[in-house]
Amino acid sequence: MIHPFKTYDRSTDYLLPPSLTDWLPKNHLAYFVVDIIEKLDFSGIKQCYSPGGAKAYAPEILTGLLFYGYMTGVFSSRKIEMATRESLAFRYIAANQHPDHDTIADFRNRFLPQLEKIFLQILVIAAEMGIRKVGSISLDGTKIKANASRHKALSWGYANKLEEQLKVEIKDLLRQAEIANQADNEDKGINIPEEITRRENRLKAIDEAKKKIAARAQERYVREKEEYDQKMKKREAIKNSGQSPKGNPPTEPSPEPLDKDQVNLTDEESRIMKVSDGGFEQSYNAQASVDVESLLIVGVHVSIKPNDKKEIVPAIKELKKLPEFFVEAENLLADTGYHSAANIEECLKENIHPLIAEKREKHHLSPNERFAEPEPLEENATAAQRASYRLKTQEGKKLYAKRKTTVEPVFGIIKQVMGFRQFMLRGYEKVKGEWRLVAAAWNIKRLHKIAVDMA
After folding, report:
1. Cα–Cα distance for residue pair 184/213, rounded to 1 Å
2. Coil, helix or strand for 287?
3. N or C: which terminus of the chain has fewer CB atoms within 10 Å of its end residue's CB?
4. Residues of the chain with pLDDT under 70
5. Burial class (CB in 10 A: 0-12, 13-18, 19+), 421
6. What is the pTM of this model?
7. How distant is the alpha carbon of residue 255 from its chain centre?
8. Nearest to residue 211, comparing CAs of 255, 164, 263?
9. Which among 117, 450, 435 is positioned nearest to 288, based on CA atoms?
């Protein structure tokens, strides 16, 4: 028996539904994006447009396309332009308009600074939905690849070697030019002035790169010298107490660049950083503060430092930008990479209780170890000791355990589901704006899930 299949005819003319709102199923993310966009204030962006000339695409259209693109893994302006024709969701957000890729790219580059206000406006909308309390914040960072290859990096050692080689080549070319002039017979196989100019330009580029490497080495020296002086003071205090310090004394840092110190020629502000798979990539350290209850990102910043030791202060600075009607954060959860006495003091100064792990805890503890309360603290305990003590209590352990179920899943979804593993833009300032764009896209995506669950 032949199975009856539905008939089809690709030559038949079809008409799309007369209303754009009939294109997608109910509760589709694209509808929610448009609802959010219509509630945002774009007056600051619109004021930047001149009244004359051809009519521009509305900022609401371009912002909506960028938000939906970053939510669904479409980051390229060319692919977004293509999607306005091929994807019903993008076509709906674009109101059946088709901005070209140059327009989308220029808009993204030009108005990144204004995204900070839009990011905060989205949190205001979250408050209107009932999310007003920011009780506990989970802070973490993730390495995101820069729009630059680590193979385009120039190290101090190789720069010096290449510099000497180019100088020798220039001398040789000048000697060839002199011989050619004396013989009154120019070598037709090589344009000596052009070759000399090319090498001189490369020398200038190398000199600029070396200056940047030397400046970074000086910054590192200041940081390492401060740490060295603190260690030496501790050793001296131990000696003065009549005891012998353990281990060898630390090595005094040098202000001179190391041969391995480098700068990337494509994005000089990015850095080589160790990534989760154990390798090294040209990256930025993207930081996010996530509300434990709602999983909304309430603060973001970007660092060029490979570790997180200095990221508490900028994170708190971002939290202080939250709208006034948000209840201030009570607890800050962070892993061992953020632990230091200075960071704990900074949190306490801002009336935030730090739950920052001092060291990695053992796994598979016995029931007695897991549920035992720590010995009471001494009355003269320091702030760092009190913070460490709270982390050992059952209440502290229960609260700290939420860290892995908040910020880490958010990073996982951003990288694996939304597909954002590399910045599209170059340079520290633009990368900061793009990371805020990613965070805003995540928040809208998260609010959509909350709204669907509440319906």
Report:
1. 45
2. strand
3. N
4. 1-18, 20, 182-189, 325, 327, 360-375
5. middle
6. 0.84
7. 29
8. 263
9. 435
